[in-house]
Amino acid sequence: TMKNPMVQAASLLEKLLFLVNVRPLPAGSREEPPPAPGYYDTSCFKRGDLLEVPRTLFVHFGIYLGENRVAHLMPDILPAVTGDRQQIQQVVTNKRLILGVITKTASIRVDTVEDFAYGGSILVNHMDRLFEDQVLGSEEAARRAEKLVGATAYSLLWNNCEHFVTYCRYGAPVSFQTDKFCETVKMIIRDQRSVLASMLVGLASIVCLGLAPSTTLPTIFIPFFLWMAG
User: Given 44, 161, 168, 208, which residue is catalytic?
Assistant: First the structure.
């Protein structure tokens, strides 16, 4: 029996998102330890704040719980294969993360600000302007995050770190990163008249998504493979 076209499309989208978005640590420091405690000034953070760490290809999100603790959703294979909390609590390596994405397993974990941000700059409540009067109380946001700590399913499209924080702070799980990517794909699907047209949309997506030069070539080829799949 043939698979539902919508299911196939969703599966393809997740694979494409995986190719262009999964890059958890800064280039050249993938297995190095995070900065030492005290690297970040946590005095400016309040319990329930939404912390945002821009990366080259994506943004990582978490909810500040106070006392240098951040709850955040991370793809991770380890909770699916062991119950050893000491092993699970260690900083998630790229291997664990990638296997978590592939197997769609993750955990909402609590780490220090240093482990969460991994040397990146931190924006605080930067998304509040997009939700206006939907912002929940800080204590409510923190409590929601704490209740969800533990193993969870993972999906780049439906349940990623951005869905987690927007549910906690604004009451609705949404992901602007994946929405933007999907809108680009819709543009491609609307016009399959030629490979060249699809390639041009791919070039446009580089501008829309702000992808780094290192990902330019894969991004151009994404529309081509979508055209072939169509």
Answer: 161
Residue 118 to residues 30, 37, 213: CA-CA distances in angstroms?
10, 11, 22
Per the prediction, the chain carries an average pLDDT of 77
Say if 149 falls within a structural domain: yes
Query: Does 6 reside within a domain?
Result: no
Summarize pLDDT for 138-163 with one digit per residue, the tens.
999 999 999 999 999 998 888 999 99
Banded pLDDT at 29 (limits 50, 70, 90): very low
Annotated active-site residue 161? The verdict is yes
Q: Which domain holds residue 196?
A: 191-229
What's the whole-model pTM score? 0.69
**Whole-angstrom Cα distance, residue 153 to residue 159?**
7
> What distance in Å separates the CA atoms of residue 100 and residue 78, rounded to the nearest whole number?
8
